[in-house]
Amino acid sequence: MLKRVGNRFNAQELWQKDHDHFLHPWTHFDSFKKEGSLIIAEAEGCYITDVNGKRYLDGLGGMWCVNVGYGRNEMAEAMAEQARLLPYANAFVDMSNAPAAELAAKLAEIAPGNLNRVAFSTSGSCANDTAIRLAHFYHARRGEPTRKNIISRHNSYHGSTYLAMSVGNRVGDRTPEFHYITDFIHHLSAPYPYRRPEGMSEDRFTDHLVDEFKAKIRELGAENIAAFIAEPIQGSGGVVVPPRDYLRRMAEVAKENGILFIADEVVTGFGRLGHWFASQDVFGVEPDMIVSAKGLTSGYLPLGATIFSDDIYEAISQPGHDVWFAHGFTYSGHPVCCAVANKNIEIIEREGLLDHARQVGDHFETRLRELSDLRLVGDVRGKRLMMCVEYVADKQTKAHLPEEINISKRISSLCGERGLLVRPLGHLDVMSPPLTLSLKQADFLVDTLRGAIEEVTRDLVKGGLLPALPRPFQRGGN
Predict the structure, then answer these.
(1) Which 3 state secondary structure label does DSSP give 440?
(2) Exposure letters 114-134 (e unless 16+ CB within 10 A, then b)
(3) 3-class DSSP state for residue 387?
């Protein structure tokens, strides 16, 4: 039972319960045992408030997901209305429900090309699992059962189920205590322009990456490859925006070899880049499948969707052989989750949040790139409301600072003290604020982050962890 002291929560009691009983995703045990968690009590708009009453601008947007912002009463009302009307419905075999049917049709309307079919799940991880199983099923139904291999990229992130974590390969995700699937999953180089080979142009780098894909196809045999999966912009792997024409050319190679292209738009979908989906509108690619979650409900309830083409559906549903698509979840097409997704999409349309995300996102991106003049900032990258800053010890060599400095956490902690949350990831601080972010809030975010970086830089110099720069020569001075 949640206890309050006056109008406040019993912060210490909650902290202790969390510390003693909650195993968090990606727990770092050494620090967690000492520091515990920041416990959030409430939120509204772009702000969250902790149990001690401290308010923060949420530069994370939850976890890349609170697209329409917090505290939307009509989202809560949609939940309550649907829960009273029909709180659960079985979607197996030949049963469905109204919100799921409406949402499937709406997703077909806003998805590119002939991506008119939808399989619902409960998360981006499960939606990626579904996409891969669907790829295997599709090729088997077409008489090519040997097409099992999945081609992914290093530094990618596709979720944390057993299969999705094996498909992803982000630095820091893989630990020796876990096991990963290796027999049919393969990884190509990340399309990471900032760390491309020295002296190589971006166009040549794209050639190199495409050639690597072709070589992998020759190695495995096209007849043994089911799908190529890629985030249009690699999210947790560093907000890596690929070089120009990279995705288009990779998709062309895949199509030439009968390989399905799965676009993991769990982060980039539903407005983060100013469009419903980024594949076609931003990168000029029409994939065979789009995987979505997060912004689909703005994080208000868990829901994933694998959106796939009519061509795939026609192949898997061809008559004969008494075939069953033996995959799905108890909560597939959950009526309350789907009702919330329908309301979420309605809000995005009614309030013009895609256009707003383009306008504010362009301003935010421009302002954030101004941080490139700071000593520790090696790269500022991303697009619109999906951005990150990469810190380096030396701009010329691009060498990172020693791990023990924990640079991104130092900077993000200082931001937190000043009322801003950004997400530390290794040598990066990542930002994905709600689409409702205002120009003033965008400026606060950038100015606060700049101040934190400058203060941490001074502290590192004072502590001897960073060499002092020589003072500029001044005539007439001592």
Answers:
(1) helix
(2) ebbbbbbbbbbbbbbbbbbbb
(3) strand
Q: What is the DSSP string of 446-460?
A: HHHHHHHHHHHHHHH
Q: How many domains does the chain have?
A: 2
Provide the CA 100 distance to its chain's centre, in angstroms: 24
- CA-based nearest residue to 227, from 291, 272, 171: 291
- How much is the pTM? 0.95
State how far the Cα of 304 lies from the Cα of 123, in Å rounded to an integer. Answer: 4
Nearest to 134 by CA among 152, 157, 118, 156: 118
Could you tell me if 320 and 201 lie in one domain? yes
- Do the strands 117-121 and 55-58 form a parallel or antiparallel pair, or are they unpaired? unpaired
* Contact yes or no for 37/23 (Cβ under 8 A): no
294: domain range?
73-350
- Is residue 342 assigned to a domain? yes
Cα of first residue to Cα of last residue in the chain, in angstroms, is 68
User: Could you tell me if 191 and 246 are in contact, meaning their C-beta atoms sit under 8 angstroms apart?
Assistant: yes
**Does residue 391 share a domain with residue 243?**
no
> What's the pLDDT tens digit per position in 2-37?
445 444 679 999 999 999 999 999 999 999 999 999
